[in-house]
């Protein structure tokens, strides 16, 4: 039986350290949403440009939040691509590499 109190060393320790340092997608999305709400919640001094800017910022904030929750509205092609990515990561990597190669050759 392993002693779970033993410290980690090497690559395992580095992976754990990196995971603890990096915020997840949801944490980032929440932070962005909070900042956008704080910046654009008072519209009393907005002109026409201010409303357009606030709308764009809040729309983007919602899109980021929905993506973090895996609830973003998708086109049919994007939904299919993401499904392949999840089910067949090796196939997805191959297709990405092929797409990149074709793009570089143009």
Oligomer: single chain
What sequence of helices (H) and strands (E) makes up the elements? HHHHH
Which structural class best describes the helix and strand composition? mainly alpha
Low-pLDDT segments, ≥5 res: none
Strand proportion, as a percent range, falls in under 5%
**Percent helix range:** over 70%
**Overall outline:** flat
Biggest β-sheet description = none
Q: How many β-strand runs?
A: 0
Instruction: Work out the count of structural domains.
Output: 2
What is the number of helices? 5
What would the average pLDDT be, to the nearest integer?
Answer: 79
Note the gap between the termini. 57 Å
Alpha-carbon Rg, integer: 21 Å
Compact description:
With 106 residues, the chain is mostly helical. The protein is built from five helices and no strands.
Task: Kindly describe this structure.
- The model has no long low-confidence stretch (mean pLDDT 79).
- The chain is mainly alpha-helical and 106 residues long.
- It has helices at residues 10-21, 25-40, 48-68, 76-87, 89-105.
- The longest helix is centred in the middle third of the chain and has 21 residues, at 48-68.
- The protein has 2 domains: 7-73; 75-106.
- It is flat.
- Helices cover 74% and strands 0% of the residues.
- It has 5 helices and no strands.
Task: Provide the descriptors you would attach to this structure in a database record.
mainly alpha; flat; 2 domains; 106 residues; 5 helices; single chain
């Amino acid at each position: 039986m392993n002693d779970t109190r033993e410290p980690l060393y090497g690559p395992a320790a580095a992976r754990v350290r990196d995971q603890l340092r990096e915020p997840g997608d949801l944490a980032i999305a929440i932070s962005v949403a909070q900042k956008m709400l704080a910046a654009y919640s008072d519209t009393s001094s907005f002109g026409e440009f201010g409303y357009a800017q606030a709308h764009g910022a809040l729309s983007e904030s919602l899109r980021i939040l929905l993506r973090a929750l895996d609830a973003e509205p998708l086109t049919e092609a994007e939904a299919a691509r993401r499904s392949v990515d999840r089910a067949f990561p090796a196939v997805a990597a191959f297709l990405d590499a092929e797409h990149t190669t074709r793009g570089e050759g143009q």
